[in-house]
Write a structure and sequence with these properties.
This protein is of the alpha/beta class. It has one domain: 3-Layer(aba) Sandwich (Hypothetical Protein Ychn, Chain: A). Helix 3 links the parallel strand 3 and strand 4. The two termini are about 15 Å apart.
Amino acid sequence: MLHIVNKSPTQTNALQSCLRLAKPGHAVLLTEDAVYAATAAGAESAGLADPLTQFKVYALQPDVDARGMAGKLVEGVTSVDYAGFVDLVAEHPNNQSWL
């Protein structure tokens, strides 16, 4: 399953809900303002640090770049471009968008 989160963890509890319900082996893709959770400070406050060992976590690189966070992703988060986003969707036939 691919979980797609697009809201900052300071705006909504979508990421926390996602992480609570995701199962080991699932993938989480952070897009738009959710990429703030992929920084060292953001991962700690969003509760993303521990799940990095259970889930594959990705951040959409164009959104990372647009927010001036290039080079600031926490270890364990993989950046993907739009083609990588498409590959993730194709790889995971089931996906859930967290609004």
